[in-house]
Amino acid sequence: MAVTQQLARVSAEFLASCRRSAGASADGDPLWDPPSADVLDLDWAPFLLQRVCELGGLDGVHRNALQQALDGDTAIDLAFLNTHPHAIGPFGPDPTALSAAQVARVAELLGQIDFPALLAALPTDGAAAASLIGNGADGIVGGTKEYLLGHFSAMREFYRDASRRQLLVVLWWD
């Protein structure tokens, strides 16, 4: 089974309900089941997206926003989501989250990134670009640039919608 990064858009009320459920359940079940329309699977793209931004010379402010979009923040206590046997991210680091205010800022900054221009800074030869990116990019079926553009666009839209709806974003590897 492949371990991939997952993101979920949730309300503060939903997260509080999960926390209460975990506390009331004999085995700590938080009843974590966000709607599938509010979950995004970034696959293995996070490391590759960061590398493209590095190679393309993206400025520090926007690279930090991307980093936060992919790593979340530990300020929100999500220990209840990481309790056996109901842990949502048993194969990676502890789940993290971004507050609605953090989501709004990240969404704004992601919206300013010209990802196609960053991809254009890479070699035009797909194999050469994948080799430069590294981290297994050469094994992506269908083209590294297309894969990364699709995932970046999906992530940007995911955050844009979460911001518009004033939702939190929870991140984990599963």
Compact summary:
The chain is α+β, with helices and mostly antiparallel strands and 174 residues long. The chain contains seven helices and four strands. The radius of gyration is 17 Å and the shape is globular.
Set out the fold topology.
Elements: E1 5-10, H1 12-24, E2 39-43, H2 45-55, H3 60-71, E3 96-98, H4 100-111, H5 115-120, H6 126-133, H7 144-164, E4 168-173
Antiparallel strand pairs: 1-2, 1-4, 3-4
What are the defining features of this structure?
globular, 174 residues, four-stranded antiparallel β-sheet, alpha+beta
What does this structure look like?
With 174 residues, the chain is of the alpha+beta class. Helix content is 48%, strand content 11%. It has a four-stranded antiparallel β-sheet. The radius of gyration is 17 Å and the shape is globular.
**Which descriptor suits the 3D outline?**
globular
Beta-strand residue percentage: 5-15%
Distance between the termini: 9 Å
- Counting copies of identical and different chains, the oligomeric state is single chain
By DSSP (H or I, 4+ residues per run), the number of helices equals: 7
H/E topology pattern: EHEHHEHHHHE
Query: What Rg do the Cα atoms give?
Result: 17 Å
Integer average pLDDT: 94
By secondary-structure content and strand pairing, the structural class works out as: alpha+beta
Strand order of the largest sheet: 2-1-4-3
* Main beta sheet: 4 strands, antiparallel
- Residue ranges: pLDDT <50 for 5 or more in a row? none
Total number of beta strands:
4
Residue share in helix: 40-55%
